[in-house]
Design goal:
The complex is a heterodimer.
Chain A lengths: L1 H32 L4 H6 L5 H11 L5 H14 L1 E5 L2 E5 L14 H36 L4 H15 L2 H15 L15 H35 L2 H8 L4 H29 L3 H7 L4 H10 L3 H29 L7
Antiparallel strand pairs in A: 1-2
Helix pairs in contact in A: 1-13, 5-6, 5-8, 5-10, 5-13, 6-8, 7-8, 7-11, 8-10, 9-10, 10-13, 11-12, 12-13
Chain B lengths: L11 H11 L17 E12 L2 E13 L4 E5 L6 H9 L13 E8 L2 E2 L5 H7 L4 E4 L3 H4 L6 H12 L4 H14 L5 H4 L9 H13 L5 E5 L7 H18 L2 E6 L2 H7 L2 E6 L2 E7 H6 L4 H8 L45 H4 L5 E4 L2 E3 L5 H12 L4
Parallel strand pairs in B: 3-8, 3-9, 6-7, 7-8
Antiparallel strand pairs in B: 1-2, 1-4, 4-5, 9-10, 10-12, 11-12
Helix pairs in contact in B: 5-6, 5-8, 6-8, 8-9
Classes of the chains: A mainly alpha, B alpha/beta.
Chain lengths: ~325, ~375
């Protein structure tokens, strides 16, 4: 078990490194291939030749790609000194470099964005998992009835409507028209819980609606399959009440596929819910990524990519561990 | 004795009265009649499933009785209604029925003086597992893969007994020991996939018997097992029946199994009983062409090696549109013997052909005895 965990953790690290190398290569080579100068991206178009040369030396842009990558990786655990002669800037660990756009350390940006994305993902996933699984189970038990049809039609709507559409409508009604909630322009850990709740409640619901719809359909399908299993009949033949049969026997089996999807979804979400964050102007990882991409802010793009890759890898690992907890036939090692 | 015919081992007076009442047509029992004295009595049971194509009449008017300590074998091919009957007795067609289409059950099922079809669902649920238990065909799929054997037996025990987990666990270990699982102390925590097929079926039997049920229904309990294990499992069921004095319904398509186990036999075809009687009668003086077919298709060790098994020709009837008249008519090699249209227009009723031996066939008893003794028996 421990050996398995260590092996998986090493695999996670390797995967993240590969993702980073790929991102690094693409984003540092693309400007070159396109005839652009990264130093210009950093300094702006008005910079003189001497200034650009200084930036190149300081950022190590003239080094071979692999050396640049190594410096970048090393900087994460150990910090890094950007030096151009006597002009030394120390970037403390964890160092992801400096934003080209704001010149703030990337880590600061990530540190501010992570709690927002984390809170968004956590709240939404609780909502959608609860609502989706519950709706799916009830639909499966009442299959073919009006309830089932209504729920599945709503779910189909939920899957098809994009977040920016439902999000705009929700904002239009609850923020602008009814004025029930107020969405803050920025969120930081210093803000009160009330501000966080007011700002996040609509994004939670909108994001949860989309996902709950998918989970309801998935749960319904798996429940129908599980309810036809022989061991469900055995459970009833023991004289168990129907509630126990559903909860203890059917739902437990149905959780396996739901968990698989959930792990991936949560991982993806932790890398930034781009559409939701853009719609509600939430300063999370997704919004940072959009800003960074549109302004070719390479260090920030790398930082966000690292977070996303790490989140997905960890979520997958956790799902794999949970499999073993749920299904005794899964042996780790 | 299994009171197939309502005659037999009960006190003679009652038996003769029952025979005269049921002699003409046993299937027609007036519903609402008083509780029978038999341990289990099924009267005119019908289980119908509405589908898009029409109503599937899986069981269509089945009656039989069974006493404690006796074994009734229900035989028939796939789709003849054997399993549907057993699930109907346990009330599993209505428990956990979701959606709009529900199975429709009618008739009466009397267990120990309680009529199960009209009893409240919760009352039947409390009887399930406690008074009547079931052993399923494939123990691998019938046991929950995510729970240990012990947990599943403990659960079965604790539904009906208000005891703490330790006591129930002790009981589970005792039961595993009783059904012949070695090292029950350790194996109690194993999962179904860690057991062999035979061990799984033993565990399944332990689970079914954990509450000392008075009625045990074994639905093809050995079909999924290899032959050497089959014999062990059958021996085990027989021993346990003796020990607990339960009534057993053994459902199978394998005549070899019932030959070993059953006191009485009931042969089903197309959702109806076409022949029933003591095992002796059905095996040695069968009175229905379908039973002959079953016997002819059974491999026997005393048969010539070069002889081929004779299958029953044709395929099982559609349960939505049963052939009019005798359901077996299209497949019956002797369909022209009565020489009139009656086979095609009238459904044969169960008629008594011997003491407690009933058969539903339009041929006269003499014709059938002649065919059996001259054509069929010599070839078996």
């Amino acid at each position: 078990m421990l050996a398995y965990l260590i092996r998986r953790l090493i695999a996670v690290i390797i995967m993240v490194l590969v993702v980073l190398l790929a991102t690094f290569t693409v984003f540092y080579m693309l400007p070159k291939w396109a005839g652009q100068d990264i130093a210009v991206l950093f300094a702006g178009k008005q910079a003189g030749a001497e200034q650009l040369e200084g930036i190149r030396t300081k950022l190590g842009l003239d080094d071979p790609l692999i050396v640049q990558f190594w410096d970048f990786i090393k900087g994460i655990p150990m910090g890094r000194d950007y030096a151009n002669g006597s002009d030394v800037t120390h970037c403390p660990a964890p160092c992801f470099g400096y934003s080209f756009r704001t010149e703030a350390p990337v880590w600061e940006t990530l540190k501010d964005a992570l709690p927002v994305t984390g809170a968004l993902a956590a709240g939404a996933c609780v909502l959608w998992l609860g609502a989706g699984v519950l709706t799916g189970v009830v639909s499966a038990l009442k299959r073919g009835t009006v309830w089932d049809r209504a729920a599945m039609t709503t779910a189909l709507g939920g899957v098809s409507l994009p977040v920016f559409f439902t999000g705009m409508i929700a904002m239009g009604i609850f923020v602008h028209n009814l004025g029930w909630v107020e969405i803050a322009d920025s969120l930081s850990t210093d803000d009160s819980i009330d501000v966080w709740l007011q700002t996040l409640i609509l994004p939670w619901i909108v994001l949860a609606f989309l996902n709950a719809a998918m989970y309801a359909r998935l749960t319904r399908a798996t429940m129908l399959e599980v309810l036809g299993e022989d061991y469900i009949r055995t459970a009833r033949a023991k004289g168990l009440g129907e509630v126990v049969v559903i909860r203890r026997h059917a739902l437990r089996s149905a959780m396996t596929p739901i968990l698989t999807v959930f792990g991936l979804d949560l991982g993806v979400l932790m890398g930034g819910a781009v559409l939701t964050e853009s719609t509600f102007n939430l300063p999370g990882l997704g919004l940072e990524a959009v800003r960074a991409i549109s302004s070719k802010d390479l260090p920030v793009i790398l930082g966000v990519t690292l977070c996303a890759a790490l989140a997905i890898a960890v979520a997958n690992l956790v799902v794999d561990l949970l499999y073993a907890v749920i299904d005794p036939r899964v042996r780790l090692g | 004795m299994t009171e197939l015919s309502k005659s037999g081992a009960t006190p003679e007076g009652a038996a003769t009265a029952a025979v005269s009442k049921s002699g003409a047509a046993v299937g027609e029992v007036v519903s609402g009649s008083p509780a029978p004295s038999a341990f289990l009595e099924v009267r005119d049971l019908k289980v119908h499933f509405p589908t898009d194509d029409g109503v599937v009449k899986s069981v269509d008017g089945l009656s039989f009785t069974l006493e404690k300590g006796r074994t009734l074998g229900i035989v028939g091919e796939s789709g003849s209604g054997k399993s549907v009957t057993s699930l109907g007795i346990l009330g599993l067609h209505t428990a956990g029925q979701y959606g709009r289409r529900k199975a429709q059950l009618s008739g009466e099922i009397w267990l120990n003086g309680t009529e199960l079809l009209s009893a409240p669902a919760d009352e039947v649920r409390k009887l399930r597992g406690r008074e009547m238990a079931m052993i399923f065909q494939d123990p691998l799929s019938a046991l929950h893969p995510y729970y240990s054997i012990g947990k599943q037996i403990v659960e079965a025990y604790r539904v009906h007994h208000d005891v703490d987990k330790k006591v129930a666990r002790k009981r589970a270990i005792d039961m595993l020991d009783r059904v012949g699982i070695p090292e029950p102390n350790k194996r109690v925590d194993a999962y179904p996939h860690e057991f062999s097929g035979g061990m799984r079926q033993r565990a399944m039997i332990a689970m079914a018997l954990v509450n000392n049920p008075e009625l045990l229904i074994a639905d093809e309990p050995t079909t999924a097992l290899d032959v050497t294990v089959q014999a062990q499992i059958l021996d085990l069921i027989r021993d346990l029946q003796k020990e607990f004095g339960s009534a057993v319904i053994m459902i199978t398509h394998d005549l070899g199994v019932v030959a070993e186990m059953a006191d009485d036999l009931l042969v089903m075809y197309g959702g109806r009983c076409i022949e029933r009687g003591s095992a002796q009668q059905v095996f040695y003086e069968p009175q229905h062409p379908y039973t002959w077919g079953l016997l002819g298709s059974m491999p026997r060790i005393d048969r010539e090696e070069t002889e081929r098994l004779v299958p029953v020709k044709g395929s099982p009837p559609s349960l939505i549109n049963l052939p009019s008249g005798c359901a077996f008519n299209p497949r019956c090699p002797y369909a022209d013997v009565p020489k009139d249209q009656i086979t095609r227009t009238e459904r044969p009723e169960l008629r008594e052909v011997g003491s407690g031996h009933y058969s539903a066939c339009h041929m006269s008893r003499e014709e059938r005895t002649k065919i059996w003794t001259e054509e069929i028996a010599p070839k078996l």
